[in-house]
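User: I'm new to structure prediction. If I give you an amino acid sequence, what do you actually give back? Let's try with this one:
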Amino acid sequence: MKHFGRDLVLRDLVLSLPNGRELVYADQVTIEAGKTTLVSGPSGSGKSTLFRAISGIWPYGRGTILRPADARFMLLPQRPYVPSGSLRVAMTYPSVPGAYSDKEMREALEFARLLSLAGEIDEEDNWPQRLSGGEQQRLAIARAMLEKPDWLFLDEATLALDEELEAEIYRTLIEALPNMTIVSIGHRSTLIALHERHMQMVLRQDGVFEPTFATRVRSSARAQPSLSDPFLR
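Assistant: Good question. You get back a string of structure tokens that encode the predicted 3D arrangement of the chain. For your 233 residues, that looks like this:
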């Protein structure tokens, strides 16, 4: 459901598994536009399910998801789909290959730390086999740089990168697309310093996970954590 506010709002939301078992409950949760938000929690706590529901591709559940009217959403999974053919096709998927100029594509590859591929945009290859897992994730980041969505959901979409490169990618996204809201799923403690808000999937007594914001909110996604930071304990 769309609304005229800027934020993403979850109300009385219950997400279930295909067998009917309830997994996630969100009474009243607001994910603020313009605030980088990290979502963490144990495996199986419904983090990816929540992202899919927000993206409109999870049919099991009830409640209300209020998405900003006319906002463009993009979800990058841990294992992005990379079609064979030309690099142009692989990079612009699911848009048509001619949607972007060569200059835009080269710039996106540079942002994603894949500039070495800039001379092969029209080369045909088995790109899913040729590119490593980390390179495939960076190719998906290049797609986001081209698409420039209003909201970008990263479902462990940088897990195959080392921590230094992961931080570079996040800072590039934040600086290059300052009007885009980033919401991430991740487990590394180093990700906390790259986000302003931290939402954890908390297990209730009834076995359902509830998204709950940590009490501390960062003033800047570029702030560096101190040794006393409670998020890192």
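You can read the tokens as a compact description of the fold. Here is one thing that stands out. The chain is about 25% helix and 25% strand.
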